[in-house]
Amino acid sequence: MQSQTLHKVMTGLFVPQLKGDGATGLAISLLGAMVMPHNLFLHSALVLSRKVPRSVQGIKEACRFYTIESAFALAVAFLINVSVISVSGAVCSSANLSPEDQISCKDLDLNKASFLLKNVTGRWSSKLFAIALLASGQSSTITGTYAGQYVMQGFLDLRITPWIRNLLTRSLAIIPSLIVAIVGGSAGAGKLIIIASMILSFVLPFALVPLLKFTSCKTKMGPYANSSLITATTWVISSMVMAINTYYLVTGFIKVLLHSGLHTAAIVFAGIFGFGGMLVYLAAIFYLIFRKNRKTTQPLLSDDAELESTGNIASIVTHLPREDITSMQLP
C-alpha cells in the first residue's frame, strides 16, 4: 500500500495532470501561493541585511550561503505542499470513507479539510489544523509586510517610522480580507484566498522576468552573473509559468463569454475589451523580456586585500553582526 502511494506521488510530481473542472485555476493559485512574487523582492533585500566583506571572495561566500538558505526554505515548503496534497488524495480516494467525509471531499475547502487528519490525530485534528492555518497566515502576513517595506524604500524612496509602516501594511492586508470574511462568510474567504493566489501567479512574470534578466546579465552582475545552465533552466521554467497563465486567461475568458447569457453585441464588446486587456498584459511581459540592459552597475568592492590575504573570510562573515530587518534602511 505504501509503495503504491509513493509511486502515485512520484508519478504526480513528474507527470502532472489537470483533471476535473477548475483544476487549471487551482494549479495556478497553488503556484502563486507558493512562489508569491513579492517574496522575490524580499529575498533580494535580505541579502543587504547581513554585513559581508565587499571583496570578490566575500561576495561569493555570501551568495553561496544565501543559496543554501533559500534552497532549504523552498525545499521545506515543497515537502509541506506535497504532504498536504498526498494526504488529501489518499484520504479522499479511500474506500472506507463515511458519507459525510465523501461529501466533504467533493467540495473540499479550508472549513472541511481538518477531517483529513482525523485518522492520525483524532479529535485534535481541527485544533491542530487551526493552529497550522494561523501560523501560515502569520508567516504570509509578515513576509508581505517586510516585502512592502523594501518596495516602498527601493522604488518609492518612502521611509517612515517602523510602527507606522507595519500598521499601514498590515491594515492594507487584513482589512479587505476581514470585510470579505464578514460579508461572505467562510465560503467567501475561501474563494478570496484562491482568487488572490491566482492574481499572484498572474503578476509573477513582472517580478520574475526582471530578476532573471538582472541576475543573468554580466553588464549588471559581472563575475557573479548566473551560469548559462542556470539561465537556460530558469527561463524555461518562467516560460512555462507564463504559458499556463496565458492559457488559463484565454480559455477561462472564452468560457465566461459563452456561458454569460449576454446578447451578441454585448459579448462582442466584452470580448474586445477582455482580449484587449490580455494583449496589454502580454505586451508588458514582452517589453520586460526584450528590454535592453545598457547601464553598467557592477557590485562595488572595498579595498580589502588584507582580508583576502588572511584566507579566513568565512569566519569574518560569520561574526559580522546582522542588522534587524525590521529597521534596516536600504542604501
Write the layout of secondary structure elements.
Blueprint lengths: L1 H13 L8 H13 L1 H10 L9 H37 L6 H8 L11 H4 L3 H32 L5 H55 L1 H4 L6 H31 L5 H27 L14 H6 L2 H7 L12
Helix pairs in contact: 2-8, 3-7, 3-8, 7-8, 8-10, 8-11, 10-11
Protein name: NRAMP family protein
Organism: Dioscorea alata
Describe the structure in brief.
With 331 residues, this protein is an all-alpha fold. It has helices at 2-14, 23-35, 37-46, 56-92, 99-106, 118-121, 125-156, 162-216, 218-221, 228-258, 264-290, 305-310, 313-319. 75% of the residues lie in helices and 0% in strands.
Record keyword descriptors for this entry.
single chain; 331 residues; mainly alpha; 75% helix; 0% strand; globular; NRAMP family protein
Give the CA-CA distance, first to last residue. 56 Å
Oligomer: single chain
Major sheet summary line? none
Mean pLDDT: 77
Taken as a percent bin, the fraction of beta residues is under 5%
* Gyration radius from CA atoms, angstroms: 24 Å
Care to count the β-strands? 0
How would you classify the helix and strand content by structural class?
Answer: mainly alpha
* Order of H and E elements: HHHHHHHHHHHHH
The helix count comes to: 13
Shape: globular
Low-confidence spans: 303-326
Total domains: 1
> Helical amount among residues, as a percent range?
over 70%
Organism: Dioscorea alata (Purple yam)
Protein name: NRAMP family protein
What does this structure look like?
The chain is mostly helical. The protein has one domain. It is built from 13 helices and no strands. The longest helix is centred in the middle third of the chain and has 55 residues. The protein is globular and about 65 Å long. About 7% of the residues have low confidence. It comes from Dioscorea alata (Purple yam). This is NRAMP family protein.
